[in-house]
Amino acid sequence: MTLMPVSLPTALRRSAAALFTGLALAAAAQDGPHRQQVPGYYHQAIGSTLRVTALFDGVVPLPRAQIKGLGAAQVDALLKRRYVPESPQGLQTSINAYLVQVEGRRVLVDAGTADCFGPGLGQVAANLKAAGFRPEDVDDVLLTHAHPDHLCGVLGADGARAFPNATLWLDDAELAYWEGPEAEPRTPQALRFIVGLARRALAPYQAAGRLRTFRPGDALPGGVRALASPGHTPGHTSYLIGAGDGQQLLVWGDVVHYHVVQFARPAASYEPDVDRAQAVASRRRLLAQAAREGWWVAGAHLPFPGLGHVRPEGQGYAWVPAEFSPLPPGRP
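Given the sequence above, the corresponding structure tokens read:
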């Protein structure tokens, strides 16, 4: 089908985005250099061959009420003394993207929100440049799924391709869902704006012949392996990347939203999941694999930089954040 750009009035877009992120927009815009935090990027060397750069896009509040499958008292107990920043709008939740340098390619996994969710977000492009890369340096953009906080950043402020030399990669089932007739009826009325945003973001890459689809098991750039992790969306995909020395990096998208709750209780789901039971099954499988194999993990909604490991704990799991480390001498 032909995809036409969708234009939404700023007020409408921000109002709808508030619903999608938990009844509120992200933190207010910064009002000067003295109010800004440090640049939002972090480099991590993994194994003998891999370097990943975490890119901070901003934070959104996700309400406790959107945690499903657990009672309020259970949620409160898990969050007690964990000190997750919380406002009346919800628990602070990061949005992260990852630039992976692998086999001579620069592969970006997800691209952030751009201007889709209002002030305080859309920082991936600036942080990519601060980290020493230009948008035209990116060879491939691998999307975990087509929600705006992962996809909108593929466009620049002018609506053109933000990564002019990159090929955009998306699971075949995920593209079919967002282009097809079921996307709108399966999306709550107040959130149907995200269907238009997805189609708008994909259109310039389709027109330029720069959109490619794949199925789990297909060969991807840099030897990346696609792991199906559906449930949050029908074609949600995570990516496993070899790093040498027997190490691997798993980059997942929305496998976890509430890290304090969902590591300890993987059966807790997130209200906007398209298929909650399937999302729980995907989360259980990936947490078990990551813990068993000792994989590095990079998570889109884990506290920045969102890099670390998973370990078993009790009846569930625990998140083990990576320690701040210098890059090894001689590594790019």
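The helical segments are 10-20, 72-79, 124-130, 148-151, 172-179, 193-207, 259-262, 276-293. Try to locate this feature in the token string yourself.
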